[in-house]
Amino acid sequence: MVLEEKANKDSATEVGAQIGQSQVKPRNNDEPAKSTGGSDGKLESEANSSTSFKVAKVIRYVSVPPVVMLVLSVVLFALKPEFFAGIPSFVMAILSLTIVPTLAYPIHRMVPKLHATGRPGQRKVAFVFTGVGYTMFFLYSIIAPTTSACRVLGIMYFLTVVALIFVNKVVGYHASGHSAGVTSPILFFIYEFGLLAVIPCVVFMVLVIWSSLKTKRHTAGQLASGIIITAACFFIALGIVTALSL
Fold first, then answer.
1. What is the pLDDT of residues 204-228, one digit of tens each?
2. pTM value?
3. Most buried pick, 128, 143, 181, 189, via CB within 10 A?
4. For residues 158 and 139, what is the distance between their CA atoms, to the nearest angstrom?
């Protein structure tokens, strides 16, 4: 009996050991280690605080279309004052293509109902103010006595905003208004200053595209569509002014 009880105890011990070993399953070296909670958020936070991300955000801020258009207007007025045919056209360009679109941001912040809509609401308000400003300059360039180049500028901006509204609202594809707004003055820099402007303009455009992709504000397709739309509108506007001798 004693021997039988001892054998039963040894058997029970062996079974217990086997069960314990089966519960501790070694991790296969080929299996990816499971991430701990919050690790993805930590990595994303670290990426957002990196130097390159901060540089990208700065480029996004300084390359907003009203700022780029302001630079274009000042440079044209300083180096080629004949472009605007006087101070009134220059002032109107600053007012309608720079100041009016920029008003969208403080108004969105100051009006509680608009501010509550966040970034999507801000984008919609900016779209509205941009459309109003571009339409103002379009009407001025057609009605007021100004230069053919100024008329090309006005028609191009108006066609661009109409095309963006159609693509974004009717087609349902989010074409980048940022890349479209930056492309417009860049095309005019090249149009007015020739090959001298090509390299700096291309470098600037590459930085704008990189910053948008880095901050994940737009996809490559959205950026490309904005550039293509603006380029098409520029050549259409140039054709209209040339054909009608405006």
1. 999 999 999 999 989 999 999 999 9
2. 0.76
3. 181
4. 9
| Domain total in the chain | 1
Dihedrals φ, ψ of 103, to 5°?
-60, -20
Q: Is 29 a member of any domain?
A: no
Q: Which residues contact 28 (CB under 8 A, 6 or more apart)?
A: none
> What mean pLDDT, rounded, does the chain reach?
83
Provide the Cα torsion 14, 17, 19, 21; round to 10°.
-140
Confirm whether 172 is domain-assigned: yes
pLDDT bucket at 42, cuts 50 / 70 / 90: low
Residue 83: inside a domain, yes or no?
yes
Is 218 among the domain residues? yes
Structural domain of 115: 54-244
Tokens read off for 202 = 């291309």
With H, G, I as helix, E, B as strand and everything else as coil, classify residue 50.
Answer: coil
Q: How far is CA 70 from CA 15, 62, 65, 73, 186, in A?
A: 82, 11, 8, 5, 12
Q: Which are the contacts of 191, defined by CB distance < 8 A and separation ≥ 6? A: 149, 234
